[in-house]
């Protein structure tokens, strides 16, 4: 029974962590200025790894259109 409880707890933790890690544009745009800066994007490793590629115009921020190209 303890093994089952531990397994269920681990599954719940993993699924909640995955949901937390998934960021959308509005969540990352903390200051609400309509763009995501590098410092705002830093909380999402996936977005940070793509930031330079996504920032098509090279202005150092991601617009919602640029962000939508994230894989």
Describe this structure in words.
- The protein has one domain (19-68): EF-hand (Recoverin, domain 1), CATH 1.10.238.10.
- With 71 residues, the protein is mostly helical.
- It has helices at 2-21, 25-28, 38-41, 45-54, 64-67; strands at 36-37, 61-62.
- The protein has a two-stranded antiparallel sheet.
- Keywords: Signal.
Lateral strand order in the biggest sheet:
1-2
* Helix-residue proportion: 55-70%
Number of discrete domains? 1
Second CATH tier, the architecture: Orthogonal Bundle
The percentage of residues in β strands lies in 5-15%
Q: What class, by secondary structure content?
A: mainly alpha
**Rounded Rg:** 16 Å
Name of the level-1 CATH class: Mainly Alpha
CATH topology: Recoverin, domain 1
Sheet having the most strands:
2 strands, antiparallel
Low-pLDDT runs: 12-22
Q: What is the general shape?
A: globular
Q: Count up the helices.
A: 5
Kindly report the average pLDDT value: 80
List how many beta strands DSSP finds: 2
GO molecular function: calcium ion binding
Organism: Pseudoalteromonas lipolytica
Protein name: Calmodulin
Keywords: Signal
